[in-house]
Amino acid sequence: MQIGLVGLGKMGGNMRERLRRAGHTVVGFDTNPEVSDVPHLSDLVDQLDGPRAVWVMVPAGGPTQQVVDQLASLLKHDDVVVDGGNSRWTDDEKHAKELAARGIGFVDAGVSGGVWGLEHGYALMVGGEAEYVERLRPIFDALKPDGPYGFVHAGRVGAGHFAKMVHNGIEYAMMQAYAEGWELLEKVDSVDNVREVFRSWQDGTVIRSWLLDLAVNALDDDEHLRRLRGYAEDSGEGRWTVEAAIDNAVPLPAITAALFARFASRQEDAPQMKMVAALRNQFGGHAVETKKA
Hints:
Helix content is 50%, strand content 12%.
């Protein structure tokens, strides 16, 4: 299958490679000419046969809106746009309406997998009309992990990004729990091998997970995380999850506390945030702040 891919950063570039390994034809465009296959977005569209499919992997908000606006003027009736970034679900509804006015389909795809997705696959949560989702199934099947899991047609437009938003809210709470446990273990005098305690949990325990594995990776690299500053950003989904909980009167005490803990990290060098920062760097390649020498 042919597909255009707009945005060839840490995830987009790896997605292009995974799709090509699966035998698909991918025409990629990025504002960085060193990684782009074509010089202009219009060239990407020209190289695809109709009906076209274009996957957008750029930052949420203004950058996504700009690309959607450009594609609206370049694509034809029955083409389809996939937003695979971390857009807010309410933006999906707006984009779908704008594109539908021109006869262009829209699918929102929440994507999880970070920098590890090239080898292990990406978990995909998609929203949109069944017609467009089924048309894109060869692409979804190539991107998802091997096996029966890792893909869901979550519902109508916006459902994919809403599901990914909740996924990220849960991720906040899980990372916070590991971080709090790590700080307590580091604090007491009786435990003198915290890294190996974490490693021992990787098999046979009820809290084993991929995040735990990544925590051990981070501790292998910097046993006491002394090189990191206890500061962690939030990328938006945590806030949106809490806002949606308020709108729907659903209590989310753990996720809300995890979000607020990140805010607290910006006021001081919080030890727990060293672990959160280390985990974000491990799974997503997110930047970390190191201590000044």
